[in-house]
Structure formats: structure tokens, C-alpha cells
Design goal:
Blueprint lengths: L2 H39 L4 H12 L2 H19 L5 H12 L1
């Protein structure tokens, strides 16, 4: 068998594997969609459940670092109105 024949056979095998995996992914997606329908029917908020799932994927130390940084940013932004420029912007926004 020529190299082209062997390569074609190998390529065909790879393509078939990808196709099978895509079908499995589609089936898993449908299963997940069904579970979220159940979540909703039980009175839970799907958006919050999705956030919970994303949060559980993170390493606890990374999550703690992100939360600490978020607090720093929130304090920085909230102190903006304490500056002359921030106070002027707040006054202008209140006037409109």
C-alpha cells in the first residue's frame, strides 16, 4: 500500500473518531440542558447555578486571590468619588 493509501486510511480513522466525539458532546449537551430544566423546575436560578459550577472549577487559592483583588478594585473605584474630579462627575451626573 502506498503512503497516500496508508495516510488516507489514518485520516479516515481520525475523522471518524472526531465525528463520534462530536456526537457524544452533543448528547452530553442535551443531558446538561435537561438537568438545567430540572434545576429551573425545582425553583433554582439557573444563572446562579452556572456561576456556582464555574466557581467550583477554580482552585480555592486562585479564587481567594481573585476575590482579594476584586475587593481592592472595588475600594479603588468607590473612593473615586472622594477625589475632586470624581466629586465633580458625581455632581454633574446628579444634575442630569
Amino acid at each position: 500500500m502506498s503512503d497516500v493509501g496508508r495516510n488516507s486510511s489514518r485520516l479516515g480513522s481520525l475523522v471518524e473518531r472526531i465525528e463520534r466525539l462530536e456526537e457524544e458532546r452533543k448528547a452530553l449537551g442535551e443531558d446538561i440542558k435537561g438537568i438545567f430544566a430540572e434545576v429551573k423546575s425545582q425553583g433554582y436560578d439557573c444563572k446562579t447555578v452556572r456561576k456556582l459550577i464555574r466557581k467550583r472549577k477554580h482552585d480555592p487559592a486562585d479564587l481567594e486571590a481573585q476575590n482579594a483583588l476584586l475587593e481592592v478594585y472595588e475600594k479603588e473605584v468607590s473612593s473615586y468619588d472622594q477625589t475632586p474630579l470624581g466629586a465633580a462627575a458625581m455632581e454633574r451626573a446628579a444634575a442630569h
